[in-house]
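Researcher: Last one for today. Full complex below.
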Amino acid sequence: MDSQAIATQPETHAEHEHSPYLRHHFANLEQQKETSTFGMWLFLLTEIMFFGGLFTAYLIYRNWYYPAFVAGSHQLRIWAGTMNTAVLICSSFTMAMGVHAAETRKRKELITYLLLTITLGVAFLGIKAYEWHDEWEHHHVPGLNFSPATFLHVDPKYPEDKPLPLDMAEKTQVYFSLYFAMTGMHALHMVVGVSLLLILLARAWAGAYTQGHMTTIENFGLYWHFVDIVWIFLFPLLYLISRHQ
Amino acid sequence: MSTIVSLPDQATATLPKQSYLNDGYGLKSWLLTGDHKRIAILYLISITIFFFIGGFFAGMIRLELLTPPSDLMAADTYNKMFTMHGIIMVFLFLVPSVPATIGNFLIPIMVGAKDLAFPKINLLSWYLYVVGGVLVLSALVLGGVDTGWTFTTPLSTHYLNTHVITAGLAVFVAGFSSIFTGLNFIVTIHRMRAPGMTWFRLPLFVWSHYAASILMVLGTPVLAITLVLVILERTIGIGVFDPTKGGDPLLFQHLFWFYSHPAVYIMILPGMGVISEVISTFSRKRVFGYTAVAFSSVAIAVFGFFVWAHHMFIMGVSNYSALVFSLLTMLVAVPSAIKIFNWAATLYKGSITFETPMLYAFGFMGLFTIGGLTGVFLGSMGMDIHLTETYFIVAHFHFVMVGGMLMAFLSGVHFWWPKMTGRMYPEGLSKLAAVTTFIGFNLTFFPQFILGYLGMPRRYAAYPPEFQVLNVLSTAGATVLGVGYVLPLLYLAWSLKYGKIAGSNPWQATGLEWQIQSPPLTTNFVETPVVNYEAYDYEWLANKTKHEVQTVG
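Model: Here's the assembly. Have a good evening.
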């Protein structure tokens, strides 16, 4: 399909020829936009492979040490995780509205939505930091301060759980290793996202993106939604193991 | 001997007044450039530096192995030597060798574009490469690493006090350089082709780079996350690979080889692209079975993702999975053989001439075939259990990587040197270098097959005295090989000033890159080319040339 599209590339539109946004090595704006969007999707594919390594490790160890994963999961603050899920979904909404504002060339709206997205992103990181601190307090950080003590007796909140034998309790370290690696990598992507948002905000403030050229905003939107979707997978995998018990 | 080289009259010929080389002067115009050709030159310089650093370590290894006891250096120094040799050669030379230099220079021109899709990201990937390189060098200066290039856990995470983290970070960063290069190539090949340049008119060089880019883009991120986990395990002690905490070191092997096996195809596929161009040009024929060769590249890329566990036959993977991986490994031999047979069929009844790139290409075909076939030995489980971790393995992958890839790299550098610089290399000296390399290579690595078969293990500084004769042969060969590599460095540098002026198409080749001036303009083409002929269409070229003469006359 696309070989045809290139092969019969239309002549450059006169109106586009002198567009200030057209980089010198593209024939026209349409090709330029298609190229950068395709590049972004490809980049997201590499991100899937990056997180894929972690999900593979999770899959294997969850099968091996299921009781340890259940016990570890029950120690997480489910309200914090739920809240963060809600925060991220909202931030995806505000981001999508931001892209829409850029499309409809409304500068003030764009700035508002970018600000909202930043706020929600920072709120997510704040809640996450609170959780990490909480896990530190409970000695759940493998390598730095870990104690299997929590898992050797029954948690009053989950009276139906059985206490783990010592060797399985030790395996909760694998669960928490993966928990910190996965949420850590995700949070790193959030930090990068918020930093990029600040740059986008500064440029939107100066009037960029609302004059018909908003590929950057659209591509950033793709990134933001991707990071959101990673969390949508992380939340049930890490927080919701066997919650019905 | 006949030749197809046709150079302009040296008395009157001059280099073009304007080209990418004189479009701006000074260090800044190079370090901040967006031009894919200049970035290719930056890469060429930096990978050459790292090649000779890595080569120095190879020399030290061979020197130590001249005598049976570990006398030149202590065993742990020897471990650091082969680790640095491996890390530098794999991540800083072989992976970027052809794609980042020759590919970077040519892919936009071959598809008829003015530049790669993302020039700034292209420059960024060079900087990432440099940062990776500096990190490797700092690991070296701080005292070295001795994990081997494979970073095997728990050795790398628990039992060594060397600079694993620095080296791991280096590979992580250099990996992103490779990801961005691959991404740029895929997008460029999809979206930047000139009018009329359909997929099946693309030179096979572009097809093989497309396949290699798929591997770079999908494989390298897995290596990245694996190294992150190793670094986290070493610094704060998380337990994903640590058996005392419930982790499994075998998982590290799976994740590491999921990248590092496809990585050998990242290394070899671009080289195969070079060979297709060279064989076609110097036998004056269209590559036999163009479509088969094109799709065999893609097939290698696809199969390449499903063979990684053949590195783990002795590590305790289940017999059933070993069986499946063994079968899949043999399947990769099929597309590789398709290429070799098709090149041979291209030579058949061609008007063959023996210019330097062609000599290197012949070297590639022979040595890669030996390297590939011994790969089939190693893919069959019974043989593998006998031969793995011996010098047989070392010889096998050096036949593929050095005998194959390095030959292809040198073939490509000579073939496109007139295009990159506008000047020819000295023909006599370069033929001598090609022959020296071939002889030196065989003398170095063939004895290692025998050594390995007799049971000499790899990665030891000392060996029993009965292996000495073969080791001395190998070290002697390494010396000859070293001469074969220093020669091109010297005469190519010489040719920058004193080489004959090449003109736009010294080989009478058909590719788009040969229809523009050498060295090319910054924008490559004066106007966007319209492609109305197939790749390797020598009749089209002959007609075009005839037409030109008529208009002039």
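The first helix of chain B runs from residue 27 to 31. The radius of gyration of chain B is 23 Å.
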